Amino acid sequence: MLSPTLPLKSTLILAPKPYLYAPKPTHFRLPINFHKLRMASHEGFRLIAQMGENHEPRTLIEYVGKGGINVGDDLVILIDHLQYACKKIASLVASPFSSSLANCAGGSGSSSGSDRDAPKPLDILSNEIILSSLHRSGKVAVVASEENEAPVCLTDDGPFVVVMDPLDGSRNIDASIPTGTIFGVYNRLAEIDHLPEEERASLNSLQSGTRLVAAGYVLYSSATIFCVTFGTGVQAFTLDRSTGDFVLTHPGIKIPSRGQIYSVNDARYFDWPEGLRQYIDTIRQGKGQYPKKYSARYICSLVADFHRTLLYGGVAMNPRDHLRLVYEANPLSFIAEQAGGKGSDGKNRILSIQPVKLHQRLPLFLGSPEDIQELESYGDVQQRVNPGYDV
Ligand SMILES: O=P(O)(O)OC[C@H]1O[C@](O)(COP(=O)(O)O)[C@@H](O)[C@@H]1O
């Protein structure tokens, strides 16, 4: 019944054995230790074989299935289709054409004067890839996407509703900077099935974040990482390009209770409120509750900044009304909480904010519980000035 979990053609290509590609002698030597590389790849295979021997769920699909946490057949099928779509996107963003796709004016129709379809920008293509995969799953009633003005109805009796940002950070593609997909899954509200389609779709998409059944992100970077929670902790899986599987590499992620990194676009410092300036000035001087000088890291790609924060701790923020509640803040806050962290708008828990509009924006602060608490204690941390920025 499941969609083929066969990898994409490109992911079928076996990883080259480093020793077959030893460089021809030249007048300079590459600083590569091929013996070490060979050992590292042997170590990787030994690790994977061992995980299999222990009968631990090894792949994403094993993890969600009956041998793992058993989320139910319907949700397994949905996740299987979603991961398949994300593998396609991973190939797309890594392709030699990604940068020209990212920059093209885009459009879904034919270009004028030609009967050939105009190329579509990557975020539009990614949206179409996920939408069609979810449609084929037969398990999704409604999809609310950053790329669609209104929610899209797929299958009337599909048990789930999916909210998503199909490709966040695509403006970075030109410079090969990481991008990501963000998603959340709700149960369909069967009690409103009698309402007209538009109203049903809207109410299904505006469910409170506290009702999320699952949430995750896929990071397209040096590795492709599928990080997910079903409300019982957070696990991350890394795409093994030799088999096409997402392999469990980060079981039971726990965010450190305190980090030493803050992540924000601090060119906006002079548009910040006093409280936020004071907070950042304090922690970077090592004068906060944690007596260490904080470091700054900001990729300007939400999934990448959040992923690093989840692993290393600290706080990732965008203090202006910019990021979206329904398909960015809610799923990432659910993951943060499941990892022991927090998601806040500077005053309130994100998950308890009732969405009123699909594309609603808000300030977002995600990270280690002690860092978020300290930040909130400054009171005035939401940037009210939002003049619009060129870059
Ligand atoms: O310009 P800012 O305020 O630094 O915002 C950057 C944030 O905007 C995003 O690029 C998303 O913005 P878009 O939805 O307009 O693409 C995030 O990936 C990133 O974290």
TrEMBL record:
Q: Which Pfam families match?
A: FBPase, FBPase_C
- Write out the GO MF terms: fructose 1,6-bisphosphate 1-phosphatase activity
List each copy of the Fructose-1-6-bisphosphatase class I N-terminal domain by range: 71-251
Recorded superkingdom? Eukaryota
Q: What is its EC number?
A: 3.1.3.11
Cited InterPro entries: FBPase_C_dom, FBPase_class-1, FBPase_N, FBPtase
Q: Which GO terms describe its biological process?
A: fructose 1,6-bisphosphate metabolic process; fructose 6-phosphate metabolic process; fructose metabolic process; gluconeogenesis; sucrose biosynthetic process
- Domain Fructose-1-6-bisphosphatase class 1 C-terminal: where? 255-378
Q: Which reaction does it catalyse?
A: beta-D-fructose 1,6-bisphosphate + H2O = beta-D-fructose 6-phosphate + phosphate
Q: Name one GO cellular component term.
A: cytosol
Which UniProt key words apply to this protein? Carbohydrate metabolism, Hydrolase
Task: Give yes or no: UniProt keyword Ribosomal protein.
Answer: no
Q: Which family does it belong to?
A: Belongs to the FBPase class 1 family.
Q: What is this protein called?
A: fructose-bisphosphatase
